[in-house]
Amino acid sequence: MLMLTGVEVACCVVVGLIVDMLIGEVSRWHPLVGFGNWAIRIESSLNHLHASRWTGAFAWCVAVLPLVVITQVLLLLATRFSVWLAPVLHILLLYFCVGLRSLRDHNLPIQRALENGDLVSARRLTSYIVSRDTTQGDEEYLSKASVESVLENGCDAVFATLFWFVLLGGAGAVLYRASNTLDAMWGYRSDRFLRFGCVAARIDDGLNWIPARLTALSYALLGQTRFALHCWRTQAPGWPSPNAGPVMSAGAGALGLALGGSARYDGVDEIRPLLGAGRPASSKDISSAWRLVLNAAVLWSGVIILTAIFMGGALYAA
Questions:
Q1: SS3 138
Q2: Rg, C-alpha atoms of the chain
Q3: What is the pLDDT of residues 245-290, one digit of tens each?
């Protein structure tokens, strides 16, 4: 097993984030899109009337494990071929898995549309990133939806990916992002997915447990710290998701915003627990939420670099 040093890990993280910010998502042939299509085929073949949790567990294994094994084998072969090829592949894998710039590219256009008074475009753009109804949303409703999406996906698309990359390299990032994608596709409490998607949802919860709390702590440190920690402690237990609760409550508190509350799904208003406190979200808070995620990414990069310098040694096996 090849051991990458802490300095190599830190370099891969920094370069991977820089590449992501410079290039963003590829418009065609993105690996996660291909994986999503693969997951659709698996689900359509295995999720039948009598599908159980065991069926869902088997489907998760079929979708994820071969991909992770192939990734690890390619990294090992690259190491034997060239001393530089394996780090380059690690960086490439991190770039494809992390979504820092995509958060900006999907959410800041909503802010611009709202600031220009173009509710039609803002509603359409918001519908791309959330599952709630947006057809009748006003500025506050759409801004709240976007801010919540930025805060929650800051964990899913950025910090949890970095966490598993630091622990397990490119294969760890692939493992996490594939699992998170399956949760997004299968992890619904509907008649169709209640049993089949249960395992995918629980695995994603497990992989996200530590990263979510590190993300919440990062938001708190970079915003209104005491208020964010108070919101995390008092509001997170009431949120349905064990990981989204800490992230979103701490993020809302850090920004001094009142999030959560009413949201419409399939024509029905759902009253969710409150997050944070203060004034309602407005269009300018979308960029504030994005900057909070960006600053947290810089913070994480700095911590990883300092850890590599002072501890040295191998951080993970590739």
A1: coil
A2: 20
A3: 999 999 999 999 999 998 888 888 888 999 999 999 999 999 999 9
